[in-house]
C-alpha cells in the first residue's frame, strides 16, 4: 500500500482555519511536520473550492481517496471511502467530489516534490462538525 497523508491530520486541517500562504518545508522538519504542512496546503486549496448545498443540515464525514501525479494532477477519479451507503448522487457527497475536481491540480504541493511519497495518495476527510 502506498503511504498517504493520515486522514486524521487532513480531517483536522479541513476542520480548522489554517494560516494563509504556501509554507516551504524546512530542511529539518520531521515527517509529521511535513504531513501537517501538506495538510495545511490542501486545506487552503479545498476550502476555497467547496460549496456546501443550502440544504446541508447534518453533515456526514465524507472521505475521498485521491491519487496525484508529481505535478499535483489527479490520476483517475476520486474514490468515495465514506460514508457507507452514500453515493455520488447525495448532494453533500457530490459537493465534496466537485471541490476536489475544481481544485485539481494541486500545484502548491510541488513545493514538497521531495516528499512525493507522502502525498501521491491522499485520503481527504471532509468534516465540518468541529466548526459548529
Automatic annotation (TrEMBL):
Signal sequence span per UniProt? 1-29
Keywords linked to the UniProt accession: Signal
Question: What is this protein identified as?
Answer: Cell envelope integrity protein TolA
